[in-house]
Amino acid sequence: MSATLYQQQREHIAALNLAYQECLAAHQLDSLAIYSGHARNHFADDHATSFQSYGHFIHWVGMADVQHSWLVIQPNQRPQLYLYAPADFWHLPTQLPEEPWVAEFDVHLCSDKITPPLSGRAAIIGDVIGLESAEQLAKAATLHPDALVRELDELRMVKSAYEITCLREANRLAVAGHQAANAAFIGAAAELDIQLAYLGASRQRESEVPYQNIIGLNQHAGVLHYQRYDLSAPKQRYSLLVDAGRRFRGYCADITRTYAGPDAPGEFGDLITAMHGLKDALIAHIGPGVEFLSLHEQMHRSLADILVAHGIYEGSAESAVEEGITRAFCPHGLGHSLGIQVHDVAGLMHPDGTPSPAPKTHPALRLTRTLRPGMVVTIEPGLYFIPMLLAPLRNKALPINWGLVDTLAVCGGIRIEDNILVTENGADNLTQ
């Protein structure tokens, strides 16, 4: 690992410590304990679900799979890391890497699950429900105080140099997976085979992906969160949509690409090209002070132009927006904040922690912030042929070319998604 990354991580932890000290003072706290979390068993079973550590714990230690561990922050003291690492022959115990950042903590390796030592006025954040000590913890501290959590969420909105380096590396690894997925599609693979190709090239297990990969062939590309993998390849290959990511030191990449297959109508390939152009045009408008909602609205105006230019809608672009045509062809938001979580925290609140909900006309929008340098967001315009969304339009006297829509429906839809860093002068595309 590079010395630059190590130095960035130590600087990240130092800045985080200063910020937390200010939070403790503002909330008159003598100690704050952050619980990493733990996996839960499936109901009536002894098999656990997949697990990822609590985001605010990852923010400090950069480890996404640490269970039953605590980080305790107190005024004017070094952070105390209580790492659960029992002697175990059933599982490989958690191990700290031999990296410089470890020296920023007082580390306590715990062979048993502990209750964190707290002093004075204390708070605990994290999912402690189900712990044997939950009742004891509730008596010793305030559990998950909303105002404090909102303030800590806001700290994650603007990324440090270390976090940006991690996000860039996560993107590099994910891109390798996307290239392998496309190659498998060209080779007439089934959805499961494409998924396995992605995992192999991006070097990760399925339990480690930041979200369940979406690998949709043909009409499955029109299911926004398609959750299955067919075992057999279809006879016709119209399209492939791959929405898949990668973690690096707890930070997520979230990339989507759509490809036309050999059996796709010619218009579908042209639409993919147009959507790449739309994505790039939106990125070109990113910069400090830009309202993300305005970018979302610009996406709909540009999508209307594409519908008209490609003969899908035979009215004016203005009427396509006004009549809700573009919302039927693209029901999701333009993007979201990205970081430790794929849909990262604080996207729907103002900097002071007050709510900033999505407008009623765009309820699926996940980000309503004014962009600032250091924010990382996704830009993911879409164009889909989803029967249940288009069906209501068929009963209206609208100039939609239904013959062309029905021809393209076998392809499901298109989504193109890049991960973008807002800079002082504009944008830096992390997805290269």
Automatic annotation (TrEMBL):
Reaction equations catalysed: Xaa-L-Pro dipeptide + H2O = an L-alpha-amino acid + L-proline
Any one Pfam family match given in the protein's UniProt record, by short name: PepQ_N
Name of the top EC class for this enzyme: hydrolase
Domain Xaa-Pro dipeptidase N-terminal: 10-152
Annotated binding of Mn(2+) 2, by residue: 243, 254, 417
Annotated Mn(2+) 1 binding sites: 254, 336, 380, 417
Entry keyword Hydrolase: yes
UniProt EC number: 3.4.13.9
Role description: Splits dipeptides with a prolyl residue in the C-terminal position.
PANTHER family to which the protein is assigned, alphabetical: XAA-PRO AMINOPEPTIDASE 3 (PTHR43226), XAA-PRO DIPEPTIDASE (PTHR43226:SF8)
Protein name: Xaa-Pro dipeptidase
Organism, scientific name: Vreelandella lutescens
